[in-house]
Write a structure and sequence with these properties.
This protein has 156 residues and is mostly helical. It is 44% helix and 6% strand. Strand 2 and strand 3 form a beta hairpin. The radius of gyration is 26 Å and the shape is extended.
Length: 156
């Protein structure tokens, strides 16, 4: 009599892989049941692995309102969120990156995250921690650029 694995032309599961499958199953059960999960030493203060905070309430409230021109309406300009064409004379919101949106489309978006849905240009937030992170990220990028320039200057 052949073994089960020979009959079904398969290999027995490796113990380590079986553990991973059971761990994923347990995680799914925990999430469904709403149980607290011990995530160990995961660092949620690392903004590279977290969603950014919402845009500043003051900035969102002060987004310029723009009236759609005849040229924009004739060009079939659309709201990037709902994909409806803007109509001539309609009032829309303009982000600092110059993208236009219906108020009902962009306001809920900016209440969740601080960036333009099209170009990801970031608006200011009310989070001091995140604003410091952005400044530090810009300094690191500038330093890398300078080092790259210095490196290129040495070899030209």
């Amino acid at each position: 009599m052949a073994s089960y694995f020979d009959e079904h032309n398969c290999e027995p599961t490796v113990a380590e892989e079986q553990y991973r499958q059971n761990a994923l199953l347990e995680l799914a059960r925990s999430l469904l049941n709403g149980l607290d999960i011990d995530l160990g030493d995961v660092d949620f203060t690392d903004w590279d692995h977290r969603l950014p905070p919402p845009a500043s309430k003051k900035v969102v409230d002060n987004l310029p309102k723009v009236t759609v021109t005849a040229e924009q309406a004739d060009a079939a300009l659309k709201c990037p969120v709902c994909l409806l064409e803007f109509e001539e004379g309609e009032t829309v919101r303009r982000l600092p990156c110059e993208h236009l949106f219906h108020s009902a489309c962009i306001i809920p978006w900016l209440n969740k995250t601080n960036s333009c849905p099209l170009c990801r240009d970031e608006l200011p937030t009310d989070s001091q921690e995140y604003e410091e992170y952005k400044k530090d990220k810009a300094r690191r990028k500038q330093r890398e650029h300078r080092l790259g320039y210095l490196h290129d200057a040495m070899y030209t």
